[in-house]
Structures are given as structure tokens and as C-alpha cells.
Amino acid sequence: MLRGFYTAASGMIAQQRHQEALSNNIANANTPGYKADQASLRAFPEMLIQQMGKKNIPTTQGINLPVQNPIGSLNTGVYVHETAPNYVQGDVRETGLTTDMALVNGVIPDETGSLFFTVQNEAGEVRYTRNGNFTVDGQGALVTNQGYYVLDQAGNQIQTDGMEFIVTQDGFLQTEDQAILLGIAYTDNANDFVKEGNDLFNGEAGAVPAGATFTVQQGFLEQSNVDSLQSMTQMMESYRMFETNQRVLKAYDESMGKAVSEIGRLG
């Protein structure tokens, strides 16, 4: 019976973590470039149940041989194996702001590969983002809305000197006296990236390979790829599963309490 407690409890914990991922997705449904988290549930290893007994051998010594009869397998519960972002391209929306940029995937050699803008966090470390909601700070540098510097292809901060600029589809930021290639990074396996908050990803990325194509659209933003309606439906399903495990746990608790009290009276 105690195993039933652990099985029901593991189901509740797994559904709670699933709810947290879905809630975070819905909260970021309007965040540009946000990639929805997907929680994958896995079962703990199954246990093989066997009946242990003995078999009498009709001999003069009366030998008894131990025997085991397989009964079947027993599942010991589920857990959230991992929460991985979904890197599918979000819809692109026109904003009309010259500092907004949408990175639109073209041909990607590997279906697990992806492209990102390169930025620098507050610690001076290189990070990656799909959120092109940029602006220009007081020193004329191109930064994200959180104040992180946007980097060029050489890993340097991009200085616009407060001048008006245009961005070409192949990623060049052009002012009156210079043309700077934006830092567009490529990874062949975006699933190795780790989310750090503020739309930043940490991982290893390199230059865009020859087989990959993309366009940068100025005055546009890539929207979140969260499907709000689907997320709400999944939240309802997850909540029902949580309630089911809760009722099972309550039933086990009542049975255990009844067994203890009745055995106590018999003693």
C-alpha cells in the first residue's frame, strides 16, 4: 500500500511541474521571440512482481525446492524527464519601429538547427536570443530592452552614434558612414541550449554555415510561438490528472487509517 502512496504522489508532482511550464508559456504569450517550453513525462522503471513459494519433491528426504512464479510488472509512477523549448519559428508582426528586427529562418541544413541574435549580458558573457525588440541607449549603442548589448559578427558592441540606420535583409546595419554585419549565430542542435530568463539562451554557437539562409526584417518582430488555446486545454487536462492522483492518494490514506485503527482494536 505504501508503494501506492509514492506512485500517486509522483503523479501529482509531475503534473504540478507540467502546470508550471504551461503557466510560464501563457505568461509569455505576448513576449517577442519567446519559445514555448514543452514538458516530457516519463515512467519510472517497472518492477517485475513474482510469487515466491516452494515445491515439494516426493523423495524419502522430503526435499522442498524454492520456486518463483512471475505475476506481472508494476509501474512505480511518472516524473518530468525534461522541459525543452520548442524552437519553431513564431509569426512575424510588423511594428514600424526601425530598431525592431525579426530573424526569419530560411533553409536550415539540420532540422534541429536554429539561428539567433548574439548579445552580451550584464556580466560581459555572450548569450543568444530570438527577441529582436531592440533600442538605442544614451551612448548610441544598439541594446535589447533589458539593456544587453547587441553584438556584431566580430563580437563587438554595435555603435550607431544615434544616427538613423537601415538593416538589409542579409543582416547589415547601415548608417551614413559604416556598414556593420549583425552577429547572427547558428547552432546545429538548439536543444543543447539552456534558458536563462529575459529571452536569453546559453550554449555553443558558431557562424552561419554556407547551406543555411535567413532574412532580417527591419520594423518587424517575431512573436511568441505559444499557442494560448492549446496551452489552456493542456492546463485543464493536467489539472484533472492532478485531481485524479489526489483522490487516489486520499483513498490510500483512508484505507491505511482504517487498517491501523481496526488492527489496533483487535489487539
Automatic annotation (TrEMBL):
State where it is primarily located. Answer: other
Localization recorded for this chain is:
Bacterial flagellum basal body
Listed A to Z, the keywords are: Bacterial flagellum, Cell projection, Cilium, Flagellum
As given in the record, the signal peptide range reads none
* TM stretches of this protein: none
Q: PROSITE patterns from the entry?
A: FLAGELLA_BB_ROD
- According to the entry, every stretch annotated as the Flagellar hook protein FlgE/F/G-like D1 domain falls at 113-172
Q: Which InterPro entries match?
A: Flag_bb_rod_N, Flagellar_basal_body_rod_CS, Flagellar_FlgE/F/G, Flg_bb/hook_C_dom, FlgE/F/G-like, LlgE_F_G-like_D1
Q: Does the keyword Acyltransferase apply?
A: no
Name of this chain's protein? Flagellar hook-basal body protein
Origin organism is Virgibacillus tibetensis
Lineage from the top down?
Bacteria, Bacillati, Bacillota, Bacilli, Bacillales
